[in-house]
Amino acid sequence: MEKEHLVEDVEAGSSPNEFQAYSIDVEQLNKMNSEKDQEAFKRLGGAAGIAQALGTDLKEGLSDAGVDASKQAFGVNSFPEKPPPSFLSMLLEAAKDPMIVILLIVAIITIVLGAAVPEQRAHQGWSEGLAVLGTALIVIFIGAGQDYSKERQFQKLNALKDNIEVKVSRGGKQVLVANTEIVVGDVMFLDTGDKIIADGVLIDSQGIVLDEASLTGESDPIKKDAVSDPWIRSGTTVNEGSGHMLVVAVGVNSEWGKTMALVSEAGDDETPLQEQLTDVAAKVSKMGVLVAVVCFLALLIKWLIETGGGDASKINDNGPLQFLLYAITITVVSIPEGLPLAVTLTLAYSMKKMMKDNNFVRVLSACETMGGATAICSDKTGTLTENRMTVVEGWFAGTAYPQVPEASALPPQLVELLKWNCAMNNKAFLVDKDNVVEFVGNRTECALLVMLRKLGFDYVELREQREADQVKLYGFSSARKMASVLLREPGSGGLRLHNKGAAEWVLRRCTSLMRPDGSTEPMTEARLAEMIELVTSMAKRGLRCICLSYRDYAANDPARPADFFEDANEVDNGLTCLAIVGIKDPVRKEVPDAVRTCQKAGITVRMVTGDNIHTAQHISRECGILVEDCIAMEGPVFRAMPAHELIPMLPKLRVLARSSPEDKLTLVALLKKQGEVVAVTGDGTNDAPALKESDVGLAMGIAGTEVAKEAADIIILDDNFSSIVKSVLWGRTVYMNIRKFLVFQLSVNLVAMISAAVGALYGGVPPLNVLQLLWVNMIMDTLAALALATEDPYPELLDEMPHGRTEPIITGYMYMHILAGAAYKLVWLFACLYGLPRVISAYAVLTPDEYYREDCSTILGDKGFNETAQKDYCNIMGYCGFPQGDTSHLSCELVGEWLRFNGSAVPADQQNAVCIPRGFPQGTNCPRNEGLMSAQKDMDKEWDRAYLKSYKPALSVLFNAFILAQVANAFVSRRIQLEYNFFKGLATSHIFNTIMVLITALQAIIMQTPINYVFKVNALNGKEWGATIAIGIGAIPFSWLVRFIARLVRPVDTSSNWLGVLRGSRAKNITARGAAPMRAAAGRTLSGRTLSGAPEGKTLSGRTLSGPKTLSGNPNTAVKTFSGNPTLSGNPQQPQPFHITARTGSSRPPSARLGSLSRVAPEPMRSAGSGSSAAPLLADPSTPRTPR
């Protein structure tokens, strides 16, 4: 039984949309849709019947009440979000690190033994293990917290990826709504490049072709029609055509939603920078493990020697367990797990900040790659210009007007034709909002709609009048450079084609043109030349020239093939030119400065546009792209030029006009072969291959199709070139922040490993204990990563050359800073460790003589020996050579005993020396010796503890100085070139400042509060704090000195010069690695075939030229223009650009042709009197003119 859902509206006069009972339920609708049940579709009455059942109208769409009711009945167009990982799961993940696991296990064993063994318990043997356990857990919690925060941030950013706006009809109006607001019953507009975001059935189609590969895996596009195959699936894209669709399934009920429910989202791959740093981390980790093993073995061997092969009772008392804990800690410290974390942090932080700069990053690696960009291939319209197109002048039926004329000033026949052309041959629409007209759709078409309004017509009413008369719509394509619509005339029933497109292309297809009186005249060669000259003059002023034309066809023509109207190339011929309008799209005021910034940064900016060569030149000069000694080239010439001729021109190529998407793809591929890192902008569906091929694809957020956005790595939300420059700055910031962190961390790693090895091998006293090393590790891997990875960009980064494709992550100057920073800290570390106890008595280390002579009574008293035994045993141990002093020492009581006994010297054997004077025979033990041996054992046990305690004052100073030097090193690491000012921009680095204050505050707490017991340090006095602060701050003037010496050794003028030194032979933004492919490619086509032995005219696409090329032009002009068209004669007094022309009949070799120069006029055609056929500007020389 069918369910009925009622939408109530108590207002009078409610429409059927507002009070509608659904005669089809969710299950029926979904079943029909999922099974593509054609029978059920027909039984319901097709799209019209389903619309009636859903309470919608195929023209008017849903009302507001209908939208709300549909959401209640059929659901919303969203998918269940993947739940973010919980903090607990992040904790478990962080705790899985093998070294952390081993550290925790050893710490627990230490705690157990320290608490279980009475002697260990008496000396709080469990405390160090507990402190290590606590610190390790803190490290785990901080790491998990950062990962959790990062995941939440990425989830928010990723959620924006799928947010798009779509065009629908609601309440009789065309509106833009978010894809998540689409409901069942909506009437959606479909156009080339759109991504389908819900399931539906086709209402009408103008040659719609869908790419369903994402669902079916079939690579061949599928043509749809409203009768035999009306089913439209979400997740697919519109390859060609346009039309309307009735939405029948949304969200989880759509086919895409069902597919998404079955699969889990794949994890992000590592970015190239993360891969590089993982490699660096692996190498450093191996060194750390080696040092840890050496330290463990050295300490273990020393312990075995001192204990005579080992003492099980000392295994947890500065014994093997402590050595293992120390070795593991060294490994934990040496493993720079902070490197990948720093990349993730800086990428996440940068992505968030880039959103504010109108850069939406879809692919994580694009952040870092953009920083190395050496070339940007930019579109013109909307990126370099404002994309607010306006018709400012034009030629209307034989009369030129400096502005759009009144309708009354034009012939009635022309006005009639113009209004239908502008309204019907057009898929854009205008939205009036707060007295501002917003453009939706193609901006050129929007400009024509505004012109139509100025002529006094409402395009919405015109479309409603003739919508039923539309026979076929031929959408714009980059190959044809035009669009057309075929309408059936109401009275006669005949067919009329309305055409518009690039003026020089449309004029080629015209056989007549309209006169001022409304009559027509033939398009002779002379008239064509005049029209081309008119177009050229308008284009040179930066105007986009659009020609509007028409042609009548008989309703029935027996001689016409049945499929004649399927081929737009056949239909768009024999046209009558009505008007040529000049559309102004001003350059964005910030673009020239942005282009200069790129050029200063070593980035070559190229304009790749479909516009006329003259328009492109004008705009590119305004932008500062086309400068002296640079080349402007047309697409037909570009694609016809052999590789060995084209590649040497690439460094000077700045403008590629009348280019096709294939030309853009070819250009990107060639530049990448030369070692360039290429960023490409694109907005059309056909731009997707070039966006994918580039290192960084930049799609336009406003004008871009969904296909282009899907193919892109970054979406420029405001379509502005200056936003692209900001993405370059952020990319360089990411790279620089990672380099800063590398300098900071690797210097600490180096110090930690060297000091640990020296302490273990030489002195036996590690300069930093386990807990201190873990604190250093927390500073390095966590806090410093957060501090240095979140530094904001600074403009000086754009004064440097790009790092390109091959530059190593660690440069020569970085090695210098790492070694210098490590050397400074090691000098002070060893000075505190070995120099301080020798120089200042307050830090003197306990000697064995002092220990046995001064501390003996106290220790033996604590062990239960009486005063007599204490005096006796302490004298023997301190002066008699058992173990300190010697048997002849005057203070040794045994000397007097042996003198009184038999007048001889004290024997070297301890048992005989202490027992014989007491009356025991030689070789016989006695209670005195047994007591002495017990006292010696107790003294041995306490020696290590007393010795390390005596080192505590010096080690306390060392620890504090080391940490403060690390804080200073963080400031120094903010600038890793040869700059003197480390503090520039510090006022705005709030995260960095906060973390530095936090580290310093925590260090003060560690040193001055009872927690210092756990870290095994003493509280410092004022002088000691002053000294350690001075040592720490001293890292800054020391770095200044290093940079000063470096400047003396290798003088630098600018930052780009020193980068040039580091990069060696990179010239013209081409890396050394890219030079070899360039030379090799000079003899190959893009397909990889060599040109040696091949015909001279072989082209990049494999086609042959129609004839050899010659170079003609003014040899004194700096800018060259490569045009694939014949030239006109003209005024030789005006300086003209170079043109490459494609004439037939020349037999000179290419080298001879390129050396031949002659003056030409600006008009790209032969004179009318030459008698030869002329091709308009930008025409492909291999394409013949349409016969008339």
UniProtKB/TrEMBL annotation:
Query: Which residues fall in a compositionally biased region of kind Polar residues?
Result: 1101-1133
Annotated region (Disordered) at 1081-1188
Q: Does the keyword Nuclease apply?
A: no
Fetch the SMART domains from UniProt.
Cation_ATPase_N
Q: Which CDD domains match?
A: P-type_ATPase_Ca_PMCA-like (cd02081)
Give the family from UniProt: Belongs to the cation transport ATPase (P-type) (TC 3.A.3) family. Type IIB subfamily.
Name of this chain's protein: Calcium-transporting ATPase
